[in-house]
Design brief:
Elements lengths: L27 H22 L1 H23 L4 H20 L3 H18 L5 H22 L5 H25 L4 E3 L3 E5 H22 L7 H28 L15 H23 L4 H5 L3
Antiparallel strand pairs: 1-2
Helix pairs in contact: 1-2, 2-3, 2-5, 3-4, 3-5, 4-5, 5-6, 5-9, 6-7, 6-8, 6-9, 7-8, 8-9
């Protein structure tokens, strides 16, 4: 596995050894609980407020992700790659805000190509993928929230599914145990956790609609299937990020969030679930009605 600690441009906390050291001054569990409550409160509050607060929250999160990603893969010209990525994320954000999400997607791919040119051989594809990943999250959440119908409610639905599948998979894996899901990538994940987590996501999605969107133009069976599929995609995003970190020999993407690692660590499942949800909704009813298109079949 390649290591990133040899690159002097990598900020402190992104090298493999530092990522294995727990935060000082408080227990890991205490840090996790406090950070978790703060993150959930920030996500829910900014989603409720919408507007500039919501945009800034997710722009900052995506910029943090591109910073972590470029540091994680290592290589030359880290700062230049990160700054270029941040600039294209801002441009993509402005494009979505101007109701031109396809222009935002085009900007992402232009920026990804430039990042590939700047990166050293062997890191070019990885560097480009980082911008696509971070920008995909940003565009997805903005498209969902700015939807003309159900923008706020669709994000609450998505939060319920992703958070529920994460929490239930964790506790089911601890309490039930059993065969490992993919031990070469994530030794702690089990099939029992995966099954309980994704089934719980289906129920959470159904309940979210009953609370916030009833009556809705979807049958209960369709809602349960949609929640189950989205939960599986979120679990897949978690595994994909674990595979990436294992490939580069890193435990956590950074220490930006005490007790939780980095933004990539906390938003891995949510990122791919949001991209799936926004893409499906936009395909169904167009980007201006993506949230309604997501939950009205």
């Amino acid at each position: 596995m390649s290591q990133i600690s040899s690159n002097p441009l990598i900020p402190p906390g992104l090298d493999g050894s530092a990522a294995k050291t727990p935060p000082s001054g408080m227990s890991d569990l205490s840090a996790r609980l406090i950070s978790g409550v703060v993150m959930i409160a920030a996500a829910l509050t900014t989603t409720k407020w919408g507007g500039e607060y919501f945009i800034i929250f997710w722009l900052v999160s995506s910029v943090a992700i591109i910073w972590e990603w470029q540091g994680l893969i290592g290589g030359a010209r880290f700062r230049l790659r990160w700054i270029m990525g941040a600039v294209f994320l801002v441009l993509a954000c402005l494009a979505v805000k101007s109701l031109a999400p396809m222009s935002a997607v085009a900007l992402l791919f232009i920026g990804a190509g430039l990042l590939a040119l700047v990166a050293e051989p062997g890191k070019r594809i990885w560097s480009a993928l980082g911008l696509v990943y971070a920008g995909g999250l940003l565009i997805a959440v903005l498209v969902l929230r700015l939807s003309l119908l159900w923008g706020y409610e669709a994000l609450l639905w998505l939060f319920a599914i992703v958070w529920c599948t994460d929490i239930m998979a964790y506790f089911a894996g601890r309490l039930i145990g059993g065969p490992k899901l993919w031990p070469a990538v994530s030794p702690s994940k089990t099939w029992s956790g995966f099954l309980v987590g994704t089934l719980s996501a289906a129920i959470a999605g159904w309940l979210a609609v009953q609370i916030w969107l009833s009556p809705v133009e979807m049958s209960s069976v369709a809602l349960l299937v949609m929640g189950w599929v989205t939960g599986m995609i979120a679990q897949g995003g978690d595994l994909a990020e674990s595979s990436l970190k294992r490939h580069f020999g890193v435990k956590d993407s950074s220490h930006l969030i005490p007790g939780h690692g980095g933004f990539m660590d906390r938003l891995d499942g949510f990122t791919v679930a949001a991209i799936f949800a926004a893409g499906l909704g936009a395909w169904h009813e167009g980007s201006l009605l993506a949230s309604h298109g997501l939950l009205s079949w």
